[in-house]
Amino acid sequence: QLLYEKLGKSSRTVDTELEAQIEMLRETQRKYLNVLRLSTALAAQLSAASNTQRALGEAFADLAQKSPELQTQFLYNADTQRSLTRNGETLLAALHFFNSSLHTLANKSMEDTLLTIRQYEAARVEYDAYRSEAEAAGTGVGGSGAGGEGVAARLERQRSVYGRLRDDSAVKLKLLHENRVKVMNKQLLLFHNAISAYFSGNNVALEAAVRHFSVPGAL
Amino acid sequence: QLLYEKLGKSSRTVDTELEAQIEMLRETQRKYLNVLRLSTALAAQLSAASNTQRALGEAFADLAQKSPELQTQFLYNADTQRSLTRNGETLLAALHFFNSSLHTLANKSMEDTLLTIRQYEAARVEYDAYRSEAEAAGTGVGGSGAGGEGVAARLERQRSVYGRLRDDSAVKLKLLHENRVKVMNKQLLLFHNAISAYFSGNNVALEAAVRHFSVPGAL
Predict the structure, then answer these.
(1) Which residues contact A95 (CB under 8 A, 6 or more apart)?
(2) Out of B42, B77, B80, whose CB is closest to A52?
């Protein structure tokens, strides 16, 4: 049937609004998975940098003890690296929460809706195949009969399967949209507040952000 | 000669103060190379994070265009990531300057002094070997003669080689100390100011720091 459709030899049942929403969902999923890939990489890179800063803090503190001639200079560098390491841990807790929520949204919630959509699309193809067959039977044989009645009954049954899956898809898309906006609204605010606070050295705001958003694992 | 010394069968000429300075230099070089290894790793990690933030900024900006329902949230995240990327480049210029100066200090200046010190140490071993030989000749044969005079002349020549290299080492150690304190004083201040300014979101201070320390490649 898909082949016939591509060759233009068979017509295709189209629900324009629903298909636009499906196309949009697939694009959104792709884009969110790209953000997830980048934010996961960022968390890993900042975590590595934070570990290096911890080691640098220790190296500077050790050199401060052993170098009276540069003690002050080594000491303030040791202090800076240590305080950045502490804030880095709070930031990473926030990033991990963002990544985990985005992972659930893109790989669980969206996938669940896309599973129903794939069933809907398969049912649509099957329905259109029966429909083409019924039309060919109607045109070719002309009259009706036992065979004709069988085709019509199968067509009717498939139309109802198709209709049910179309309604399921529409409902799931609506619920997914609401869920997505709610989750992303919260997570994008957390991401922004945590990153801004960290990179402005505002550890009070950083800790307030992870508390406000109930980030798991944060102090 | 080194083996005889270890077995306690031969005495060793010792310049306590110089040897303490040499031991200190070797320890300082080890510690500075460790800091260089860590600060090079930090620059690479922050550079990777900065590239990820650039890509994240673009992904957020793209999503802001395509998602009217979350436009504001995506937009402020795009702005934050972009401004962090810009500041990241300035910070990296400062870190590269720090790393390059520390590399020159630990791998060039300190190595040059250590080369003279290794020559001095070899001359010391050779001098002590002649000295043991001369002592053995003096005790065994008792008197003097052509052979005895040859040993004494060689010993005298080697004592002067040893003395010259000892003086060279002492001078180089003194110059290296002055150079090291000057370089590290500047670089530790730059490192601290650049890192503090970057991680407190103070791009004015960050740019002032790289200008003040004439960081190459910075805007």
Answers:
(1) A39, A42, A43, A46, A191, A194
(2) B42
Q: At what angle do helices A146-198 and B71-103 cross, to 10 degrees?
A: 50
User: What is the pTM (predicted TM-score) of this model?
Assistant: 0.87
Whether the complex's predicted ipTM surpasses the cut of 0.85: yes
Q: Where are the alpha helices (DSSP H) in chain A?
A: 2-6, 16-66, 71-103, 110-140, 146-198, 203-212
Sign of CA dihedral B104, B105, B109, B115: negative
Q: pLDDT, tens digit, for every residue of A61-110?
A: 999 999 999 999 999 999 999 999 999 999 999 999 999 999 999 999 99
Q: Residue B176: which of B93, B130, B131, B115 has the closest Cα?
A: B115
Collapsing DSSP to helix, strand or coil, B199 comes out as coil
A191 touches chain B (CB under 8 A): yes
Confidence grade of residue B195 (pLDDT, cut at 50, 70, 90): very high
Taking a C-beta distance cutoff of 8 angstroms, is the pair B198, B84 a contact? no
Under an 8 A CB cutoff, do A56 and B42 touch? yes
